[in-house]
Amino acid sequence: RPGTLGGTASFDAPALFGLLGRTPIDGVGGRFELSRNLVASRPDPAAVAGDIRLERAEVSSKDQRYTQSDITRFRLADGALTVESLDWSGPGSSVKGRGSVGLLKGIETDLRLDVDTDLGILGTLLSGRATGRLKGGIELHGETGALQVTSEATLSDGSWLIPGQRILFAGWSGRIRLEDQALSITNMGGTVNGGSIRVDGRLPFEPEAGGGTLTIAARDVLIDVPRGLHSQLSADLVWRLVERRARLQGNVEITANQYTEPVTRILELVNSLSQATPGAGEATLPLWLADTTLDIGFDVTDPIYIDNSVGTVELLPDLRLGG
Predict the structure, then answer these.
(1) Nearest C-alpha neighbor of 210 from the set 248, 253, 180
(2) Whole-angstrom Cα distance, residue 37 to residue 174?
(3) What is the pLDDT of residues 186-232, one digit of tens each?
(4) Cis status of the peptide bond prior to 226, with omega within 30 of 0
């Protein structure tokens, strides 16, 4: 006798994150109502077939609200979950999906999601304020355990203000593509604190992915590092991966100004630098990437004036970063 499973279930966003094995995101909420009508002709996962629907669904983050344009519908059959309808929208944004996901060994996945969104959503998830547009897609192909991910995105006139760090990214545009275990960046650039930055090249995620070269060109970027030392930075850097060894080399030109922080602040800065040790925190980069060899020259074109209650000192550093 065939087995059946029907009915509805309601859950919120934190419960969904838990179901997916993920930590809930602060400030993200939502409600979902799911219905299913499944039948199994025999006690075998491949024999389960039927329909799964999101009758009602919405996701919210601060003042942003995203809902499905129509009922989201899936069809389960022969060990695969097929997307029959997936169309979500929000303020200036849309997400559409098509294809199928293999749920059993030997069943192929062929899934694509298309995203066209205003970057205001970043401001609701992260600190700061973001504007601009991101359009792209992500594809999944292959069997479970051996999925291949391909993704591409085009950024148009993106801006992001980070008040706590006093950093403004403005007018950023370019294209990125993830394929074959590497990230390709094409003509990505914009301004940072009034200066310009442009990035081009290919960054592999694994040394086996083949050689890569990434160029970074910066012009007249205003910085405040350490806090109180107002400087202007220009740089030409090249990162290369050759025979499984990564190397970052180039030159940085710094035009400095007066440093007027109290002497106690200078002593705190020196003390924190002297206590810093390699490996003090856990590396978040792959070991081969974290072991990038550095060969960067620093050219300070104007003297740094340290001017506070203790006295006035004029410095003209000659630095090179290696290791």
Answers:
(1) 180
(2) 45
(3) 999 999 988 999 999 998 877 666 678 999 999 998 877 666 667 78
(4) yes
